[in-house]
Structures are given as C-alpha cells and as structure tokens.
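Structure first, sequence second, as always.
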C-alpha cells in the first residue's frame, strides 16, 4: 500500500486530518461510521491510478479533533468541511465525490448546495430515513437508541441500533451503523465487515474490537455503572496479537464510537435532503447500495430515491460494509461509475 501524503486543514471549530494519493482529477472520499480515512485503504491505491484521491477523518473523529467536544454536529457543517477540502485541493475544477453511509449523506448535501463544485457524486447507502414512508418508525428507533445509551451505555445501545437495521423478518441484525465493533458486540455478523452508517475501517482493524477503548468523548452519555469506554473495553477482546498499526486503528474506532452513536447518528439520521433539488441534479448522482443488503434499513433510502428519480440503483459487491468485505470488487465498481 502506498503511503499517502498527510495534511491538516483548519476549518471552523475543528482541524481535519486528510490523506492524498495519486495524480489527476480530484476524487474526494467521505467515510461514514468511525472508520475515517483508513476506511478507504483497500481501494485508494488502485483509484489513485488516474485520480488524486483524498480521504479524511470527519470532524470529531480520531485525528480530526473538535475545538469544543460538546459542539452539536450538523450535516451542513460536515459538508462545508468537505467543500473546504475541494477548494484547497481542486480550486479550479469540479471534483468527483464518493461517500459511504453517513459520508454519503454529507455528499448529498454538498451536491444540493454547491453543485458547481461537483462533477459526479456516488452515494452508497445514505441512511436518509426521513425520505421513507415509514420514517416515524425510524425516529422511534433513534429515540430507543438514545434512551438505552443514557441508561445502559454504549454496547447495549449499539445492540438496539443493530437490531433496528435488520431487514424485516430477519433473525440476524444488520451490521450497525455505528461500527462493526459495535455490531460484533451486539451479535451482528462481523466477517471482515467495517463501520457503516453515518463508514468503514480497514478489515483487519474493524473485525477485532479494542481491548481498552480510547477515552470516550466528554459529551458521550454514560450508563449507570460504566462509562461507554468502559463498556466497550469490557465487551471487547484483546488486541495484543494485532500488528501495531491495526491495533491503533481499532483503538481509534472504539474510542470514537460514543461520539458517533451519541452525536452523529441522531443528527445525520434526522436529516432530510432536498429531494426536489436532488432530482434536478440526478444526472450527476449515482445512488448505490450493497447487493447483499437488500431490504435492510440503510439500503432502503437509496432504492427509494432511485425509483423516485427514475434512475438506476447501482449495486456494489457485499452489503452495507462492502467497502471492507470486498475491497477489490468495490473499488472496481466505484471506478466504473466514476468514469462512466
């Protein structure tokens, strides 16, 4: 794997960590979940043959610290962060953008608000559940997750979240949008899966939760007996056998989960995109979903919008976390739709 050039960008209220590979037109990769820039390690090298590939840690995650850990998180501000990266790295030309899960929500907002900066957007399973006819049910799910988080802590809340993402009639929870680490603890399949929802960590790191999570963000609610970090630590196996880099990624992933589940999920899944504006820009929008996640909650908004716009729903290998479970095939499909 090629070592990227590392950069730091000061934005309003945060400092972003970003990574650059290759040469050519700019391709901005927006992660979801707690994976950060490392979510795209399995595809970035191949994509850098023809693109300047930029991936980053969204504000508040691991290497992109917030000035105020208690600051409210808003899709519009995260989209503005992405815009600042475009203006820095591709000031004179529109860029291609690909986002997964919560990163796809950011990409949708960026397209509707600054279309002159965007050549094409690939949005893989954006969980914009407010567009669905049964949106009220999903608001109730988020309320249950929030209440469980406050009463019992991180892992019980992740379990509730995972159960709410499953397809109707399925006995196995979908991989939770918080992260595969939460999913594994909650009983979700974790065969080389990665974070979803509002992302993806590398497969080696994402499959093994940290032995002792990094300190939780100060704004994360705690359970009655344990902090979320303590709950994550007690629920997770050791990382002593992992290579140091993989172990560090797992530590970051687990440490970011309280922030993700407590701050990102409630705000991002309550976001309603400008559907009429998206329809008008649908010639630049590729709505994508996992071939193996048909019927799961993160799949449904992309399918719903594609049908409403009369555009194809492009299936990618794997499920919601196909970026990690099928990196070579996922990257190949991503290049196809970007180059089309």
């Amino acid at each position: 794997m090629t070592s990227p050039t590392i950069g730091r960008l000061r934005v309003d209220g945060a400092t972003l960590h970003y990574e650059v590979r290759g040469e050519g037109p700019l391709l901005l990769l927006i992660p979801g979940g707690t994976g950060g820039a490392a979510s795209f390690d399995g595809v970035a090298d191949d994509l850098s043959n023809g693109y300047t590939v930029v991936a980053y840690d969204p504000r508040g995650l691991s290497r992109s610290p917030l000035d105020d850990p208690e600051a409210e998180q808003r899709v519009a501000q995260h989209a503005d962060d992405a815009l600042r990266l475009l203006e820095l790295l591709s000031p004179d030309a529109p860029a291609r953008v690909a986002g997964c899960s919560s990163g796809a929500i950011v990409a949708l907002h960026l397209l509707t608000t600054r279309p002159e900066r965007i050549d094409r957007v690939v949005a893989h399973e954006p969980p914009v559940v407010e567009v669905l006819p049964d949106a009220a049910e999903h608001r109730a799910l988020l309320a249950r997750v929030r209440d469980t988080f406050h009463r019992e802590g991180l892992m019980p809340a992740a379990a509730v979240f995972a159960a709410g993402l499953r397809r109707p009639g399925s006995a196995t929870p979908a991989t939770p949008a918080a992260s595969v680490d939460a999913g594994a603890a909650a009983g979700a399949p974790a065969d080389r899966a990665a974070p979803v929802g509002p992302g993806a960590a590398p497969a080696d790191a994402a499959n093994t939760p940290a032995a002792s999570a990094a300190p939780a963000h100060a704004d994360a609610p705690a359970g009655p007996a344990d902090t979320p970090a303590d709950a994550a630590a007690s629920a997770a196996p050791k990382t002593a056998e992992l290579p140091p880099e993989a172990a560090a990624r797992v530590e970051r992933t687990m440490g970011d989960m309280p922030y993700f589940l407590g701050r990102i999920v409630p705000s991002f899944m309550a976001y309603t995109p400008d559907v009429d504006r998206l329809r008008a820009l649908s010639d630049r929008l590729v709505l994508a979903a996992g071939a193996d996640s048909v019927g799961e909650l993160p799949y449904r908004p992309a399918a719903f919008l594609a049908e409403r716009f009369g555009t194809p729903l492009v299936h990618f290998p794997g499920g919601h976390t196909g970026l990690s479970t099928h990196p070579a095939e996922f990257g190949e499909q991503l290049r196809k739709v970007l180059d089309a």
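Margin note: Strands lie at 5-11, 14-21, 26-30, 52-57, 95-100, 118-124, 285-290, 313-316.
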